[in-house]
Amino acid sequence: MSLLKTDRTTAPKAPKTKTREWADSLIFAIVAATLIRWATFEAYTIPSPSMENSLLVGDYLFVSKLHYGPITPQTPLQVPLTHQTVWGTGIKSFSELIQLPTYRLPGFSEIKRNDVVVFHVPHESQYPADLRTNYIKRCVAVAGDTLEIREGQVYLNGKPGVTPPGLETTYFMQVDNPNDEVLADLRAQGVVEYEQPGGSPQAVTAPDGKVGYAISCTVAAANFFRKQPYVKNMTVIQPQVALFPDVADFRNSPAMSATPRGWSLDSYGPLPIPKKGQTIALSPGNAAIYFKIIARYEHNEGITWKDGMIFQNGKMLTSYTLKQNYYMMMGDNRHNSEDSRFWGFVPEDHVVGKAVLIWLSVDPFGDFWHKIRWNRLFNIIH
Q1: Domains, the chain
Q2: Rounded to whole angstroms, what are the CA distances from 256 to 150, 294, 306, 320, 352?
């Protein structure tokens, strides 16, 4: 018979101290929270009125990364914690750092028309996508669509698109006498000017000498004001600016289309939305549409812009096959939103997730008793 001998030379393992137990628990909690935030849901807040009246300044949202699938980080581990630290090292831009390949894990839904989507803004080219500012807009067109806007109405493939119920338009509301009655009605109709004290719109004088208010509001609110005796006229106003693709590379280079279109915010397109696997014949008539895709989003080397055409290593490109899908994003406050009409398409690998739920809403101008917008709590986002 053999006997199992105990090794008396090995000392028993010392129990963990309370400090060590707390440290281990804290590390586990941080890792678990990071994984949950990366792979499932993340909380965001609305800081600007570009999605009003569908989403309001002060809304707190849950954004689902499960819908489209979480995306792996692009930023390497060597990237410092702050942008300022990187610039202080003498590195001129994040593009000089090695970036990791990007992969999207499977989700249970594709990006659909009318989804409210959070994404990394495309035009901050000095940073990797996952270190850029996050925007939230509505997906108005998906890869393969042809988008057109006529008199403010979106058309997809020749047919009218869905109009979101909270869609806002900007008007100049001419009045005889700006007074407290007008301001009370503006407040009651949900018209807020966030840059003014108390959120109340201020009366202005137009170049033609007419007095009134520049306001963004829903169609229902506009119809209400048209019926008021103090309103003389309601005129749609919008900024007169050069848009994509006349401006081929928003804020990044002076590249301009060789064939300017002169589109406006309410009269835009038709514009084809690029689709993965599609081969495009390039010409001066469409090169500006695809310049940023080829030069930046799909990471091709040696791309330059010259005389309204795209060149690679000094040779003019006459065709190109797309490597991923693209989307057109617009704010519901259609005249007060910097969106795809300004800077073009959103690449699929820039999409973070789908906004699904308002879990809290705080009125920045509400008093103590009205600070919380109770009617918006736990609303599903449409």
Answers
A1: 39-163+240-361 (2.10.109.10)
A2: 24, 15, 10, 19, 29
On the CB side of 75, CA atoms within 13 Å amount to: 17
pTM as predicted? 0.84
Please state, in angstroms and rounded to a whole number, the distance separating the CA atoms of residues 339 and 328. Answer: 8
Q: How far apart are CA 67 and CA 355, in angstroms?
A: 10
Predicted local distance difference test score (pLDDT) of residue 92: 33
Total residue count of the chain as it appears in this document: 382
| pLDDT at residue 111 in the model | 96
d(CA 130, CA 323): 19
Token output for 195: 């840059």
Confidence of residue 118 (pLDDT cuts 50, 70, 90): very high
**Pick from 67, 134, 131: nearest CA to 105:** 67
Which of 7-11, 202-206, 287-291 has the lowest average pLDDT?
7-11
